[in-house]
Amino acid sequence: MQSTQSQKARIERHKSKSGAILLKSFGNWTIDALRDVSDKLDSYSGEYRNTSIQWDLSNIGEIDSAGMLLFIHHYDLLKSNNCPIELTGIKSEHDKLYALLRKFTAGKSVLPEAALSSRLLKPFNTVGRKCIAFVLDTMEFFTFIGEHFTSLFNSLLHPRSIRIGAIVKNIEDAGVHAMPIVALTSFLIGVVIAYQGAVQLEKFGANIFIVDMIGISVTRELAPLITAIVVAGRTGSFYTAQLGVMKITEEIDAMRTMGFDPHCFLVLPRILALMIILPLMIFFADLVGIAGGMFISHVHLNLSYAEFLNRLQNVLEIKHLWIGIAKGPFFAWLIAAVGCFRGFQVSKNTESIGRYTTISVVNAIFLVIACDALFSVLLTELGL
């Protein structure tokens, strides 16, 4: 028999041989686990009219007043759509809660007019919910950032509390182990730029300018951006999954119970480690990317390595290299902060780890690109 404990609320829809719709409810219908099932019930309530429905409630574990009110709301909504409903498997304790809440909802059930307006307003309702969720999520993120800076300030006041060993370990995990994929990606980026640029420059006999294109574009923009995206996909997701598992196994709650600050012990070492290692990884990516471009220039344009390096010394100003490297700490902070923040948001089920890991990677890549665009505008305006 499938256990209903520690499961979030869900509902499945089937079609019986008689043509009736069979709704099967599962999990715990409690206030913190109703989001998905609420969306599905909204869909069913708007879809069915004059349709026989059998609603199986036997697999519901716990149910609180929020879950019961959600059930009553959609039960009345389907009734108002002239849907005959047969309830099966309702438990005695659930029946008592149903009877109690029915006293306060009697006469307040959804009227047909309300059902019509509900369908018309549904798109606005959906947009409104997403806007509210976005605002709440943003406020929660700023709260997390505030806690992070408080922990950082306290650590600076008490340097011995900084966990040097954890920082070194995270540098190894996030940096050293990522070198092969960063090297391969950077080399291929150099190859692509050189190959595409060579085709165009060869038409005008301006082969030597391939060095300018590779040197500036790789060091200033592409190496920092591609390295940050690789790190966001690899290390950012790792941080989210790692902290999410600690959340599920209640290790973070245990730390708080014992008086340890999770931000000081878990978040700060990860963020500092990534801020230290990412600029070095960008420099490494610069070298490999230029090497890839130099190789293709030699093969495709017959440009010797000596000519390439001599031209590179003349055209590549040191400011382009420093600008690319200077972006590293900002990108690293965004990636690590988002990864840790999403890890702390994981709820106590394994499904949410995958969900928040995906959100973490998407958020981190978007913020890195947005930050890079901001740098481009700002540095251009400053004449750099």
TrEMBL record:
<keyword id="KW-0472">Membrane</keyword>
<keyword id="KW-1003">Cell membrane</keyword>
<keyword id="KW-1133">Transmembrane helix</keyword>
<comment type="similarity">
    <text>Belongs to the MlaE permease family.</text>
</comment>
<keyword id="KW-0812">Transmembrane</keyword>
<dbReference type="InterPro" id="IPR036513">
    <property type="entry name" value="STAS_dom_sf"/>
</dbReference>
<feature type="transmembrane region" description="Helical">
    <location>
        <begin position="321"/>
        <end position="344"/>
    </location>
</feature>
<dbReference type="InterPro" id="IPR003453">
    <property type="entry name" value="ABC_MlaE_roteobac"/>
</dbReference>
<protein>
    <submittedName>
        <fullName>Phospholipid/cholesterol/gamma-HCH transport system permease protein</fullName>
    </submittedName>
</protein>
<dbReference type="InterPro" id="IPR030802">
    <property type="entry name" value="Permease_MalE"/>
</dbReference>
<dbReference type="Pfam" id="PF02405">
    <property type="entry name" value="MlaE"/>
</dbReference>
<dbReference type="GO" id="GO:0043190">
    <property type="term" value="C:ATP-binding cassette (ABC) transporter complex"/>
</dbReference>
<keyword id="KW-0997">Cell inner membrane</keyword>
<feature type="transmembrane region" description="Helical">
    <location>
        <begin position="356"/>
        <end position="379"/>
    </location>
</feature>
<dbReference type="GO" id="GO:0005548">
    <property type="term" value="F:phospholipid transporter activity"/>
</dbReference>
<feature type="transmembrane region" description="Helical">
    <location>
        <begin position="271"/>
        <end position="301"/>
    </location>
</feature>
